[in-house]
């Protein structure tokens, strides 16, 4: 029996690796065809991506980008595991980063304390914003997809209203940039100096911790089990005594709190203030990355790294004379291929399982017959 | 088994990361400097880093492109263009400028105020390369800050609007409520009220804060303009990028109403022929002049540095006269212009 389970797991592992691999290979082939169709040679493009992408400063860039993307992927994945489509991560992280920046600019406490407060403020803001959608869903039955999209727009409007000189922001750089007051240098998060490669965001450590927490809470606790159960079947969860409503609100809150951290690498390690050009739309990247990583903490990390790699290298492709739209094409194709590849592999796995079970049953059915014949 | 596989996968991933981050000491600049030397065609190598929208936006970026094109034609050489995305972070903008600098492009023009911090950083790293930044001010020995007095041309647009309105009611449509567009609003409103304090000015912004869709949504421009027209306004000034075309379209549907364009002379823009009869004038911002001046100065070996303000006096901004609809009020406009140039009128930069 023991041997049997280990064999099935090995196969599952193989199948699990096969899907993303298949997707990436298919995406590469399609991208090569697209580049060919634009009248250029894909060979040098790919080799340029490899040499440029593995230079040390590129690696620092990729890790920094991936830090943000990883947090986005995890916060989306928390909702996914629960069968909740939290599209509102975008509004949640922007609002969180904004209020955290305002708070951080106003604080004059010792560095570690104000950093802690900034993080708590960001997570709380994200959680509250996500909770609105959760409460609406359980009390009024509003689909979280609709409410979170609307909350994104409302978040934009709130930031637009408050990010004005005289309200919570000031004018900088010759009166061309509106931004919150910069954080005092004491509350800058630490940077890891990698020499000529540039500086690595210290927040990558926090991102890794979030990943571990995500893995532990969802995979190793009663709460995580309940959450996954609700995601797979609400009626089964209710039958086993789980309060679905409570789980919906709780998981939205956790997803929102994680979303609150998305803007933090940028705020605490790079810009130190929230201005009108604070990056937007990261959460949508997060959705793609969560899909790519199959909601798995390691998968999401690999997806985030892949995304960072693609952005870094395709930025450079534009420089080499390829069209800059290639990035969008590769990313879109990868996501599509991933979805298709997983489905193909899942069906293949199911079929194999059926065949195996069928074979076993046939063997069992055949065995007594033999005995009979002997008898 | 499963757990072991998972843990080993995690270890592998982290080990690979740690290795790749430390072991590979070569930076992309090392590679670039060795490979790019063969690429030069002679002449001047102009690097352009556009804001979101890039070449072809019929407005701001296009104007910068015109300046670079002119320089390329006149001096020979080549242009390399890179364009921003909305999801850009500081690192992306820095990468863009650094790629250009590494490949030996000089001068490098950053179009748009979003590039200010990255220009500051990269210019310090490449002291032998000349950088230009449009719409912002960056300190540096090798940086030319190209700024414009948009409020002055908007003031003149306001004077024209106040003189042309028959209903004593005009409108202003801004793309996004950022400080730059507020300069347009401030100048326009002041121009209107200095000419005729009784004229009412409606002000509307198409989007706010981080939502920059107001610069690229002709439908929003059209709705806003229609609302103002229905309210009784009959001259509308739209400082809203390509959304302005929607406003002009709406104005075109009302007899006797006028539209005022922005940045480029809208009367002469291909595709706007249908609406020519409604375009009173445009508050032109000659980004091309600023960009060309800068490239020329680098070519001549005396690169411009510091903050170069392209004012009304220097022809950096102006009020277009195409169409001839301003002929009857030209003397008054000239008088107002003279007062601004002489410093008798100080135009506000914030509303």
Topology, element by element:
The complex is a heterodimer of chains A (375) and B (351).
Chain A: H1 2-37, H2 42-53, H3 56-81, H4 89-106, H5 111-140, H6 144-162, E1 170-172, E2 177-179, E3 191-193, E4 199-201, H7 203-220, H8 222-232, H9 234-239, H10 244-260, H11 264-271, H12 282-292, H13 297-319, H14 326-374
Helix pairs in contact in A: 1-14, 2-13, 3-7, 3-10, 3-12, 3-13, 4-5, 4-6, 4-10, 5-6, 5-10, 7-8, 12-13, 12-14, 13-14
Chain B: H1 2-23, H2 28-35, E1 44-50, H3 60-75, E2 77-83, H4 90-102, E3 108-111, H5 116-125, E4 131-134, E5 143-148, H6 150-164, E6 169-176, H7 179-195, E7 200-207, H8 218-230, E8 235-239, H9 244-252, E9 258-263, E10 279-285, H10 287-299, E11 306-310, E12 317-319, H11 330-342
Parallel strand pairs in B: 1-2, 1-3, 3-4, 4-5, 5-11, 6-7, 6-8, 8-9, 9-10
Antiparallel strand pairs in B: 10-12
Helix pairs in contact in B: 3-10, 4-5, 6-7, 6-11, 8-9
Pfam families (chain A): BPD_transp_2 (PF02653)
Organism (chain A): Streptomyces malaysiense
Subcellular location (chain A): Cell membrane
Notes on the structure:
The complex is a heterodimer of chains A (375) and B (351). By secondary structure, chain A is mainly alpha-helical. Chain A has a domain at 62-321: ABC transporter involved in vitamin B12 uptake, BtuC. In chain A, 76% of the residues lie in helices and 3% in strands. Chain A is built from 14 helices and four strands. Chain A has helices at residues 2-37, 42-53, 56-81, 89-106, 111-140, 144-162, 203-220, 222-232, 234-239, 244-260, 264-271, 282-292, 297-319, 326-374; strands at residues 170-172, 177-179, 191-193, 199-201. Chain A has a two-stranded antiparallel sheet. A two-stranded antiparallel sheet of chain A has the order 3-4. The two termini of chain A are 29 Å apart. Chain B is an alpha/beta fold and 351 residues long. Chain B has two domains: 41-148 and 286-316, Rossmann fold (3-Layer(aba) Sandwich), CATH 3.40.50; 150-285 and 321-342, 3-Layer(aba) Sandwich (Rossmann fold), CATH 3.40.50. Chain B has helices spanning 2-23, 28-35, 60-75, 90-102, 116-125, 150-164, 179-195, 218-230, 244-252, 287-299, 330-342; strands at 44-50, 77-83, 108-111, 131-134, 143-148, 169-176, 200-207, 235-239, 258-263, 279-285, 306-310, 317-319. A six-stranded parallel β-sheet of chain B has the order 2-1-3-4-5-11, sandwiched between helices. Chain B has a six-stranded mixed β-sheet with strand order 7-6-8-9-10-12, sandwiched between helices. In chain B, helix 4 (90-102) packs parallel to helix 5 (116-125), helix 6 packs parallel to helix 7 and helix 6 (150-164) runs antiparallel to helix 11. The longest helix of chain B has 22 residues, at 2-23. Chain B is globular. Chain B starts with a helix and ends in a 9-residue tail after the last helix. Classes of the chains: A mainly alpha (375), B alpha/beta (351). The interface between A and B is large, with 62 and 57 residues.
């Amino acid at each position: 029996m023991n041997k049997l389970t280990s064999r099935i797991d090995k196969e599952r592992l193989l199948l699990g690796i096969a899907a993303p691999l298949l997707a990436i290979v298919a995406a590469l082939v399609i991208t090569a065809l697209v580049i060919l169709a634009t009248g250029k040679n894909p060979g040098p493009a790919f080799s340029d991506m490899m040499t440029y992408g593995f230079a040390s400063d590129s690696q620092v860039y990729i890790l920094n980008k991936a830090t943000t993307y990883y947090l986005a992927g995890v916060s989306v994945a928390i909702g996914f595991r629960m069968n909740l489509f939290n599209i509102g991560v975008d509004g949640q992280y922007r609002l969180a980063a904004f209020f955290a920046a305002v708070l951080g600019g106003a604080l004059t406490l010792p560095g570690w304390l104000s950093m802690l407060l900034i993080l708590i403020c960001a997570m709380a803001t994200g959680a509250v914003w996500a909770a609105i959608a959760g409460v609406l869903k359980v009390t009024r039955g509003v689909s979280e997809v609709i409410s979170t999209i609307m909350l994104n727009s409302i978040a934009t409007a709130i930031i637009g209203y408050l990010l004005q000189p005289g309200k919570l922001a000031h004018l900088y750089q010759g009166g061309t940039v509106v931004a919150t007051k910069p954080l005092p240098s004491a509350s800058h998060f630490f940077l890891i100096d990698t020499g000529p490669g540039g500086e690595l965001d210290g927040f990558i450590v926090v991102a890794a911790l979030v990943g571990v927490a995500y893995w532990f809470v969802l995979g190793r606790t009663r709460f995580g089990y309940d959450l996954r159960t609700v995601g797979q079947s609400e009626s089964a969860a209710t039958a086993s005594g789980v309060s679905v409503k409570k789980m919906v609100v709780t998981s939205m809150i956790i997803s929102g709190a994680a979303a609150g951290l998305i803007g933090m690498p940028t705020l605490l390690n790079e810009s130190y203030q929230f201005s009108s050009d604070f990056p937007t739309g990261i959460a949508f990247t997060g959705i793609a990355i969560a899909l790519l990583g199959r909601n798995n903490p390691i998968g999401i990390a690999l997806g985030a790294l892949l995304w960072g790699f693609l952005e870094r290298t395709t930025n450079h492709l534009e420089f080499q004379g390829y069209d800059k739209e290639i990035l969008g094409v590769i990313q879109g194709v990868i996501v599509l291929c991933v979805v298709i590849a997983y489905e193909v592999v899942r069906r293949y796995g199911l079929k194999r399982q059926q065949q195996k079970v069928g074979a076993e049953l046939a063997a069992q059915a055949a065995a007594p017959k033999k005995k009979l014949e002997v008898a | 088994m499963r757990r072991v596989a998972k843990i080993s996968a995690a270890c592998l991933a982290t080990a690979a990361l740690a290795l790749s981050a430390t072991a590979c000491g070569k930076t992309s600049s090392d590679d670039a400097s060795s490979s790019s030397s063969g690429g030069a065609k002679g002449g001047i190598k102009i690097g352009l880093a556009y804001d979101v929208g890039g070449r072809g936006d019929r407005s701001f970026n296009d104007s910068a492109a015109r300046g670079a094109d002119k320089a390329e034609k006149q001096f020979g050489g080549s242009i390399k263009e890179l364009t921003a995305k909305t999801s850009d972070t500081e690192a992306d903008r820095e990468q863009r400028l650094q790629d250009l600098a590494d490949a030996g492009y000089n001068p490098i023009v950053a179009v748009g105020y979003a590039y200010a911090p990255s220009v500051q950083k990269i210019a310090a790293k490449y002291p032998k390369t000349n950088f230009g930044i449009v719409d912002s001010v960056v300190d540096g020995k090798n940086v030319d800050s190209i700024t414009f007095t948009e409020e002055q041309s908007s003031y003149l647009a306001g004077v024209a609007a106040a003189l042309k309105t028959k209903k004593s009611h005009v409108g202003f449509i801004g793309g996004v409520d950022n400080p730059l567009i507020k300069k347009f609003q401030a100048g326009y409103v002041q121009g209107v009220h200095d000419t005729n304090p009784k004229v009412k000015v409606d002000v509307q912004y198409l989007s706010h804060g981080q939502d920059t869709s107001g610069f690229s949504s002709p439908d929003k421009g059209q709705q806003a303009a229609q609302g103002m027209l229905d309210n009784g306004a009959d001259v509308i000034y739209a400082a809203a990028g390509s959304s302005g075309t929607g406003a002009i379209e709406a104005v075109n549907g009302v007899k006797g109403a006028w539209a005022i364009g922005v940045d480029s002379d809208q009367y002469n823009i291909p595709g706007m022929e249908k609406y020519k009869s409604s375009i009173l004038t445009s508050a032109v911002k000659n980004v091309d002049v600023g960009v060309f001046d800068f490239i020329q100065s680098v070519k001549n070996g005396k690169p411009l540095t510091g903050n170069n303000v392209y004012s009304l006096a220097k022809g950096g901004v102006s009020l277009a006269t195409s169409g001839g609809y301003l002929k009857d009020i030209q003397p008054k406009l000239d008088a107002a212009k003279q007062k601004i140039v002489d410093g008798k009128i100080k135009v506000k930069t914030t509303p």
